[in-house]
Specification:
The complex is a heterodimer of chains A (about 375) and B (about 625). Helix content of chain A is about 30%, strand content about 20%. Chain A has about 375 residues and is of the alpha+beta class. Chain A has one domain. Classes of the chains: A alpha+beta (about 375), B alpha/beta (about 625).
C-alpha cells in the first residue's frame, strides 16, 4: 500500500460505522483530534470538525480494509488463508515466574513489553490495564507499570486512544499491544502520511481474539458486588471465568455471548494477522502461550528476548496448531458465508476488500475442517 | 465623589450614585439589595460608606428577603432603602401586595431599575404596573439630579403617608452622568429601637380601605409637587405627556421639529397616583395629547381613562396605540430616543421629518464583509466555557439526546456559541431547575432523555433551593449542575452566602453548596471544570443513576483570579496543527476563547492582553503546542 487516505471524514465515520453499530471500540479514531472521544466502550463524534475528509475515516478498521495490501510492507512470509502470513509458530512463556503469575497463560506479552522497555528499544508501551473492574488503557514506561497492566481484559477497550494521545502530545517510541482490529488500525495509521508521528509506532503485538465484550458485562458484575477482577479467562468450550474479590465467578457460554460486541461478528481476523507477533492461548497448557512470529521485526525481537533469557520457547504441542487453524477458519467461514446475519447478529463484510481468489482459498480450506 | 461632605459643591455623578447620595441626604439607616443591573451601584455605594454613615447594609439572598428585611427596619422606625432590578421587583410581588396593607413607619423606599431594550436583562418590562397593582406611590425621575432629589424626598413622602414608595429609573438614568449640587447630610439622632407590645404588622383584608386612603393622601401631595412640570405655551392645543428620560427626548424633539412654541410638555415625575387635578388643569386647553414614555403605555392607558372619567371634553390621542410614538421595532418595544420622537411628532403634524437618516444599505453590505461578527461570548478563561465543553462531551458520549436547561448569570451566554448552543431554556432566576422538576417526571410519558439544569452559585441561593427540595420530595430525575465561580459575577463580583464575605466586609463561615445539597438529601459530587476529562467521567457516572443529582463545578471566576495573579499562555507555532486534520483550529474556532485568534498561516495565536492564564486551551491542545509564557522576560 502506498498511501492510505480516503476522501471521507467524521460524518461518514458516523453514518457508515458508528451509527449502524459496526464500531468495535478499537479507539483508533479517538483523540486523534478534540472532536472524537472514547469513554468506556463508547466512541462518539462530539462536534463536527468542519473538515470533509479526515484520518479518522481512513484508519478505522471497519472502513475499506485490504489485508493483502496492508500486509506487504510487513513482509510476513507465506500468507496462510487460516492464520495469515507467518514465519514460525512456537509455544512460549516468560522465564520469570512473577511475570507468568501476573500475566495471562505464559505471560509472553508482558515479558516482551518489559524487555522492550528495559532495553530502551521503546520508550513506552500502550497496554490495556484496568481500574480494578473496568479496562483502561495505560501508557507504561517501566517494567512495574507493565506488570500492573498484565492479564487479559475481555471488554473492548478503546486503547488506541492512548496511542493517539502519546503520538500527539509527546512522541515516544511505542510498542502497542492490541486486538486484531486494533492491529489493522495501527497498520492503516502507519500507511497514512497525515497521521502525526506514525513512525514512532515501533512494534505491534497482536492478541488472539474471537470476540470482545461490551462494558455492560462490567455493569452486570458491579451489580453482583464485584469491585475487582483479579484474573479472567475463557477456557476452551466454556464461558467467561473470573477470579474476583467476591470469589470465583463463571458464566456459561450463552450467558457470555449475551455481552458480545455486535461489531465482532463481522471480524475475519481472530489471530491478528497483521501484527509483528501474535500471542494467545495454546488451549492445551495454560502456563504457555501460542506465539506466531510474522515479520522480520517480530522475529528479531523474539531472538533477542530469548537470547537475553526473558523468554522461553518450545515446539507447539501436538495438534494445537491444527486446532488453532480450524478455529480461525470456522470464524472466517461463519462471517464470509453469512448472508447478513450470524446466529441472529448482523454481519457487515462490506468493508473487506478481499480478492475473490483469497476468499475462495479460505472457504475451501474451511470446508475441509 | 457621591459621599463628599461639601454641601453646595457641584459634582458630576452617575444616576446610581445620585440615588445613593439622595438616600444619604435623607439619613438612610438600612439598605438591602440583591445585585441587579442597571442599579447595582446604588447599594454598592451605600455599603462602601456604611461605617461612616452608620448604615446597616447587606446583600440579601434574593429581592423578596431584601424587601422584607428593609420593611422590618421601617417598622422599627428606621429609614430603609431596598434596591433591585426590574425582575427583582417581580420576585417581591407577594410581599409588595401585602406590605401595602399594614403600612410602614420609617420611610421605606424601593429603587427599581428598569431596562427598556434589555441592555443587560433577558426581557424588558415596565415596573410601573406594580405600583398601580399595589396601590402605592410611584416616582419617575427624568434626570440624574431628579434621581437624587426624588430619592431623598421619597423617604419624607413615605413617612407622611405611611406607605412604601417606588422610585423607578431606567438604564439611561442609572448609567448616565449628570451634574447636581450636593446638599448636607442630616445629623442622625441617637436612637433606641424597640418593638412595642402593641406593635402589629398585619395584612388583613379590611385594611384595603387604608391602602386607598394612603394613595389618595399621596395624590393630594402630588397635586402640589414641583416635580410635575408643565412647560410651553399656556394655551397649547397639543400637549406631550411624558415621564422619565422620554420627557427629555420629547423636549429635544420639540426643538428639532420647531414645535416648542406651539406644543406644551407635561412632564410627570410624581406619576402614580395620577395628580388628577393638575392634569385636568394643564390639559384644559388642549385638544390633542401625545404620549412619550418607556416601555409600556402606562401613562397612555391611565391618563386616557382618567380623562374619560373626569374630563369634560373629548381629546385626540397619539402614542403607542395610534402607532405614532414607537420604538424601532414597534410601539412599546425597546427604547425611545430623540430621533424616534421627532419622527413621531412629524407624523402627528404632517411635517417633514427633520431627522435625516442617510441611506446606509450599501454601506452595510461593505461593512458586513470586512467586519467580523461579534458574538456574545464568555470572558477569556471563564470556567463556564470548560464546564459547557465537558457537559457537551458527556451528553454526546451518553447518546440519549439529553438536554440542558439554563438560568440567569454569566453562563446564560451559554445559550449561544460560547456555550456550544447547549442551553435550551432561559427564563427567570431558578427557572432552569424549576423546569427540570417537570421534565424530570416525563419518563412515565415515554421520555428517556437525561435532563440537566445549570445554575450559578449566587442563583443557587437566590432561587433554586425550593426547586431542589421539590426534586428530592417528588423524586424527579435530573442532574443539577451548579457552576460555582465563587461570586455573583454578572453584576460585578458581589459576594453571596457561599463566599464567606458580606457586603460590608465582615467574614462569615461560607455555606458550601455541596453541604447544602447533601443536607437536602441530594446525591452530590464536586468536580473541577478545568479538569475536563475528570468532569466528563463524573457526569457520565451520574448519568447512570436516577433521581435528583447534583454536580458542583467549582472554579473561581477568571477575572477575579487574574486580578491576583498574572499568567499568560502562548502557542508554539511549529507544534500547532493549525487547520490540519487532527485539530482544525479547535482552540480558537470551536472552544472559542476570545483571546485566541489565527495567524496568516492558520496557526493559533494567543493575545497576551486578553489571556487570563486559565490554561484550559493548553490542556485541550492535541499537540501540547500551548505553554505558559515566561513573564519574567517581559518584566525585564
Amino acid at each position: 500500500m502506498t498511501e492510505n487516505r480516503l476522501p471521507k471524514g467524521p460524518e461518514q465515520l458516523m453514518s457508515e460505522v458508528i451509527g449502524p453499530g459496526w464500531c468495535v471500540s478499537c479507539g483508533a479514531c479517538a483523540d486523534l483530534c478534540p472532536y472524537i472521544k472514547a469513554v468506556g466502550d463508547r466512541v462518539a463524534v462530539i462536534h463536527p470538525c468542519g473538515l470533509a475528509d479526515g484520518n479518522c475515516y481512513s484508519i478505522c478498521p471497519r472502513t475499506a480494509t485490504d489485508y493483502a495490501a496492508l500486509a506487504t510492507a510487513g513482509a510476513n512470509g507465506n500468507p496462510d488463508p487460516a492464520l495469515g502470513g507467518w514465519r514460525r509458530i512456537y509455544h512460549a512463556r516468560a522465564a520469570d515466574t512473577q511475570v507468568i503469575c501476573a500475566g495471562q497463560y505464559g505471560g509472553v506479552v508482558s515479558a516482551l513489553a518489559m524487555f522492550l522497555l528495559k532495553n530502551r528499544e521503546c520508550d513506552a508501551a500502550v497496554l490495556t490495564g484496568s481500574d480494578g473492574l473496568y479496562p483502561r488503557w495505560k501508557l507504561a514506561r517501566s517494567e512495574a507499570e507493565v506488570l500492573a497492566a498484565a492479564g487479559s481484559k475481555y471488554g473492548v477497550c478503546p486503547s488506541l486512544a492512548g496511542v493517539n494521545r502519546a503520538l500527539g502530545l509527546a512522541p515516544e517510541r511505542l510498542a502497542v499491544v492490541g486486538r486484531p482490529c486494533q492491529v489493522v488500525a495501527l497498520r492503516k495509521m502507519q500507511y497514512c502520511s497525515s497521521v502525526i508521528n506514525r513512525d514512532k509506532i515501533q512494534l505491534v503485538l497482536g492478541l488472539f481474539c474471537f470476540w470482545g465484550l461490551d462494558y455492560t458485562i462490567y455493569r452486570f458484575l458491579a451489580k453482583e458486588g464485584v469491585n475487582k477482577i483479579i484474573k479472567a479467562d475463557v477456557p476452551k468450550d466454556e464461558g467467561l471465568s473470573m477470579e474476583t474479590d467476591q470469589g470465583n465467578l463463571k458464566l456459561s457460554q450463552d450467558e457470555t455471548r449475551a455481552f458480545i460486541r455486535t461489531g465482532c461478528y463481522s471480524c475475519i481476523d481472530p489471530t491478528s494477522e497483521l501484527a509483528d507477533l501474535s500471542i494467545g492461548s495454546t488451549e492445551a497448557d495454560s502456563s504457555w502461550c501460542a506465539l506466531i512470529v510474522r515479520t522480520e521485526a517480530g522475529e528479531a525481537l523474539v531472538q533477542r528476548a530469548t537470547a537475553s533469557g526473558v523468554l522461553q520457547l518450545r515446539e507447539p504441542t501436538e495438534g494445537t496448531v491444527d486446532s488453532l487453524r480450524n478455529a480461525a477458519l470456522s470464524k472466517k467461514r461463519r462471517v464470509l458465508a453469512a448472508e447478513g446475519t450470524e446466529s441472529g447478529h448482523s454481519v457487515n463484510t462490506g468493508y473487506l476488500q478481499l480478492a475473490e481468489e483469497d476468499r475462495r482459498s479460505i472457504m475451501e480450506m474451511a470446508d475441509r475442517v | 465623589m457621591f459621599n463628599v461632605n461639601q454641601p453646595g459643591k457641584r459634582v458630576i455623578l452617575t444616576g446610581n450614585e445620585a440615588m445613593a447620595r439622595g438616600a444619604l441626604e435623607a439619613g438612610v439607616d438600612f439598605c438591602t439589595s440583591y445585585p441587579g443591573s442597571p442599579c447595582v451601584e446604588v447599594a454598592d455605594c451605600l455599603f462602601k460608606v456604611s461605617d461612616s454613615h452608620n448604615i446597616y447594609g447587606e446583600w440579601s439572598t434574593n429581592e423578596i428577603v431584601a424587601l422584607e428585611a428593609a420593611a422590618a427596619a421601617s417598622f422599627a422606625g428606621l429609614r430603609a432603602l431596598c434596591v433591585m432590578k426590574q425582575n427583582g421587583l417581580a420576585v417581591t410581588a407577594d410581599f409588595l401586595l401585602t406590605l401595602n396593607h399594614p403600612g410602614i413607619r420609617g420611610g421605606l423606599v424601593i429603587v427599581v431599575g428598569d431596562d427598556p431594550g434589555a441592555h443587560s436583562s433577558i426581557n424588558e418590562m415596565d415596573s410601573r404596573h406594580f405600583a398601580r397593582m399595589a396601590e402605592i406611590p410611584l416616582l419617575e425621575p427624568a434626570t440624574v439630579e431628579e434621581a437624587r432629589d426624588m430619592t431623598r424626598w421619597a423617604f419624607e413622602l413615605s413617612e407622611q403617608i405611611k406607605a412604601y414608595v417606588i422610585v423607578r429609573v431606567t438604564t439611561r438614568i442609572s448609567h448616565a452622568r449628570g451634574n447636581l449640587v450636593l446638599e448636607k447630610f442630616p445629623a442622625k439622632a441617637e436612637r433606641k429601637v424597640k418593638v412595642e407590645p402593641w406593635d402589629r404588622f398585619l395584612c388583613v383584608a379590611p385594611m384595603h380601605g387604608m391602602v386607598h386612603s394612603r394613595l389618595e393622601q399621596a395624590r393630594l401631595i402630588f397635586e402640589k409637587s414641583p416635580f410635575n412640570v408643565y412647560t410651553g405655551p399656556e394655551d397649547a392645543k397639543t400637549v406631550v405627556a411624558a415621564s422619565g428620560p422620554a420627557a427629555l427626548y420629547a423636549r429635544e424633539a420639540l426643538e428639532l421639529t420647531g414645535l416648542e412654541k406651539k406644543v406644551g410638555l407635561l412632564k410627570l415625575a410624581a406619576t402614580w397616583p395620577l395628580p388628577r387635578e393638575t392634569i385636568l388643569e394643564k390639559l384644559k386647553n388642549a385638544e390633542q395629547i401625545i404620549f412619550a414614555e418607556e416601555t409600556d403605555p402606562f401613562l397612555e392607558q391611565n391618563l386616557t381613562s382618567l380623562l374619560a372619567l373626569y374630563g369634560r371634553k373629548v381629546y385626540r390621542y397619539f402614542g403607542q396605540f395610534s402607532g405614532h410614538i414607537s420604538g424601532q421595532a414597534g410601539p412599546g418595544l425597546g427604547e425611545l430616543n430623540t430621533d424616534l420622537l421627532a419622527s413621531g411628532l412629524s407624523k402627528v403634524f404632517g411635517l417633514d421629518n427633520p431627522v435625516k437618516v442617510p441611506a446606509t444599505g450599501h454601506l452595510r453590505s461593505i461593512l458586513k464583509m470586512s467586519i467580523p461578527e461579534r458574538e456574545m461570548t464568555l470572558c477569556s478563561g471563564c470556567p463556564h466555557r470548560a464546564s459547557f465543553w465537558a457537559l457537551k462531551i458527556a451528553l454526546e458520549m451518553d447518546g440519549r439526546q439529553g438536554f440542558v436547561l439554563g438560568d440567569i448569570g454569566c453562563y446564560t451566554l451559554g445559550a449561544a456559541k460560547s456555550g456550544f448552543w447547549l442551553l435550551r431554556s432561559i427564563m427567570c432566576m431558578g427557572s432552569g431547575i424549576g423546569l427540570a422538576n417537570g421534565f424530570g417526571q416525563l419518563h412515565r410519558f415515554g421520555m428517556n432523555q437525561p435532563v440537566f439544569a445549570v445554575m450559578g452559585d449566587s442563583t443557587f441561593f437566590h432561587a433554586c433551593l425550593p426547586a431542589l427540595v421539590n426534586g428530592y420530595y417528588n423524586s424527579a430525575d435530573f442532574i443539577a449542575v451548579v457552576l460555582d465561580n465563587s461570586l455573583t459575577a454578572m453584576t460585578g463580583g458581589q459576594p453571596h452566602p457561599g463566599v464567606g464575605l458580606t457586603a460590608t466586609g465582615s467574614s462569615v463561615k461560607p455555606l458550601h453548596i455541596e453541604d447544602v445539597t447533601a443536607g437536602l438529601g441530594l446525591r452530590t459530587v464536586i468536580a473541577d471544570p478545568h479538569r475536563i476529562d475528570d468532569t466528563v467521567e463524573s457526569i457520565l457516572e451520574l448519568l447512570q443513576e436516577k433521581g435528583p443529582r447534583v454536580v458542583v463545578l467549582r472554579k473561581e471566576c477568571a477575572l477575579a483570579a487574574a486580578k491576583r495573579e498574572r499568567k499568560v499562555y502562548q502557542v508554539k507555532a511549529l507544534q500547532c496543527a493549525g487547520s490540519e486534520c487532527g485539530c482544525n483550529n479547535f482552540c480558537g474556532r470551536v472552544f472559542g476563547c476570545p483571546a485566541i485568534s489565527m495567524t496568516a498561516e492558520s496557526k493559533a495565536l494567543i493575545s497576551d492582553i486578553l489571556c487570563t492564564g486559565c490554561g484550559v486551551c493548553a490542556a485541550l491542545c492535541p499537540r501540547r503546542a500551548i505553554v505558559e509564557a515566561d513573564l519574567t522576560e517581559a518584566k525585564n
